[in-house]
Amino acid sequence: MQNPQAASEINALEAAAVRAAQTGWEDEAARLWRKILTIDPNHRRTLASLGQVAFRKGDMQSARSWFQRIVDCDDSDAQHWIHLALACRNLNDIDGEEQAIKRALSLDPTDLVALILRANLLNRQGKTHETARAYRAVAAVSPPLAQLRPELRPAVAEALAHTEKYNADMAAYLDQFLEPHLERLSGEDLRRFRDSLDLLVGRKKRYESRSMNYHYPGLAPIEFFDRAEFPWLDAIETATDDIRDEFLAVLAADAGFTPYITYPSDVPKNQFAELNNSPRWSAFHLYKLGKRVDENADKCPLTMQAIDSAPQPDQPGRTPAAMFSLLRPGTRIPPHTGVSNTRLVTHLPLIIPEKCRFRVGNDTRQWVPGNAWVFDDTIEHEAWNDSDKLRVVLIFDIWHPRLTLAERAMITALTSGLNAFVGDAFAPTES
Question: How confident is the model over 363-376, as a mean pLDDT?
Answer without folding.
Answer: 96
